[in-house]
Automatic annotation (TrEMBL):
Membrane topology: Multi-pass membrane protein
Keywords tagged on the record: Cell membrane, Membrane, Transmembrane, Transmembrane helix, Transport
Protein name in the entry: Uracil-xanthine permease family protein
Family annotation (NCBIfam families): ncs2, NCS2_1, pbuX
Chief site of localization: membrane
Native source species: Yoonia phaeophyticola
UniProt-listed InterPro entries: NCS2, UacT-like, Xan_ur_permease
Length: 437
């Protein structure tokens, strides 16, 4: 499947090839797409496996599909019209989980809507902002996101995230860790000892193996699945509309970083599939699609969307650049999002199963940040920027009482990990003198 005929994004392989290829794109991103909604729902105090959590999972699938179609089919200037798969972004999890825990989902989702509008507006001049986000800055932000989320993964693997769960006797039990480690071992085994579709689906297969073991150990409750409907209408503003300036600023800052990431994915897709650079129109269209998908998702209870880098790898691996293949993947996600039974099955997944999966996922996010930083020469200036930015970003998040007397908006930003790291990295990179050539 490396025929150069398919280096044109407007060419479609025969359906017997296109449908399996579209499914492969879905399998590669499915677990990563629904995980942020599960984490934010837990932070908001929603019952694990309850109808509200199921609804958020549905919205993650539905609007990943819709945003993907925006990206591949396009509407006017919206959409790169490249084979870019959209999904719920991990970049926003830290900020949104904190906002949801302290202010509620209404504030978090309102911030997503406004952040999406700002993200959309970035499409008009994104190419002029790229100089603010060299690999040093973007790598630091991505690394911070991964490191910030790793403790959440460990808590899930041990059997809890909320205080009452971590205080239970079963927290950290051998049963919980045996399930989590099964997920990790199977996922890594499939990823590195198989090829093609199986390898791309390593995390999903690992989750299925852990799910089976958890079921055998009596950890799975199928009652919510039996009670879930086959079809349900979606609701606009399910938690209302509640504005908070700190939450909006925090989400907007992450949106800018997400936009830069999408620029990178659009460029990588064009390079991997067609051996060329992405055009300005494709980069702007990709950013518009990101923002529009995020804003509309927020209206209905979905979290922010972004391009998924792992799917860029599939384009490079198969050599098939067809955007219509990824459109098929988007349609599959839309169908999944409209069926609550599917969301209920995902929501029935015990925390240790999810924990095993996200240990790998969040670790990979951190590793991706290190990979981006590797593009920078490790001079004394570079190392100081990394050291100070990480110390502020992660330090204030770990010790939030250190800034307890700051006003609410500023405190929210200061303890979000991502925002202070990004602002410190950008500021130091602009202020500190460049190394002599």
């Amino acid at each position: 499947m490396t025929d150069t005929t398919y280096s044109d994004p407007n060419v479609t392989p025969p359906l017997v090839q296109a449908v399996p290829l579209g499914l492969q794109h879905v399998l590669a991103m499915f677990a990563s797409n629904v995980t942020p909604s599960i984490i934010v729902a837990g932070a908001a105090g929603l019952a694990f496996g309850g109808p509200e959590q199921i609804y958020l999972i549905q919205m993650a699938m539905l609007f990943a599909g819709i945003a993907t179609v925006f990206q591949t089919v396009g509407i006017g200037p919206v959409g790169a019209r490249l084979p870019i798969m959209q999904g719920t972004s991990f970049a926003f999890v830290g900020v949104l989980a904190g906002v949801a825990a302290t202010m509620g989902l209404s504030v978090a989702l309102t911030a997503c809507i406004i952040g999406g509008v700002v993200h959309f507006a970035l499409g008009a001049f994104i190419k002029h902002l790229r100089w603010l986000f060299p690999p040093l800055v973007t790598g630091l932000v991505i690394l911070t996101i991964g490191v910030y989320l790793i403790p959440v993964a460990i808590k899930y693997a041990a059997g809890g995230a909320a205080d009452f769960q971590m205080e239970a006797e079963s927290f950290g039990s051998l049963k919980h860790w045996s399930v989590a480690l099964t997920v990790i071992v199977v996922a890594l085994g499939v990823k590195f000892f198989t090829k093609g579709t199986l390898s791309a689906s390593g995390i999903l297969i690992g989750l299925l193996a852990g799910y089976v073991l958890a079921f055998a150990l009596g950890m799975v409750n199928f009652a919510p699945v039996a009670g879930a409907a086959w079809i349900t209408p979606i609701s606009p503003l399910p938690y209302g509309f509640e504005f908070n300036l700190g939450a909006v600023i925090a989400v907007t800052l992450v949106s800018i970083v997400s936009a830069i990431e999408t620029v990178g994915d659009a460029s990588a897709t064009a390079k991997a599939g067609a051996g060329r650079d992405a055009t300005d129109e494709e980069i702007s269209g990709a950013t518009y699609a990101d923002g529009l998908g995020t804003a509309i998702a927020g209206i209905f209870g979905g979290l922010p969307n972004t391009s998924f880098s792992q799917n860029v790898g599939i384009v490079g691996m198969t050599g098939i650049m067809s955007r219509h293949v990824v459109t098929i993947a988007g349609i599959i996600m839309i169908i999944c999002g409209l069926i609550p039974k599917i969301g209920a099955v995902i929501a029935s997944m015990p925390l240790p199963v999810l924990g095993g999966g996200v240990i790998v996922m969040f670790g990979m996010v951190a590793a991706a940040g290190l990979n981006v930083l590797a593009e920078e020469k490790m001079t004394r200036r570079t190392m100081i920027i990394i050291a100070v930015s990480l110390a502020f970003g992660l330090g204030l998040n770990l010790v939030p009482t250190a800034v307890q007397y700051l006003p609410g908006v500023i405190k929210t930003l200061a303890t979000s990990a991502v925002a202070p790291t990004a602002m410190m990295a950008i500021g130091l990179n602009l202020i500190l003198p460049k190394d002599p050539e």
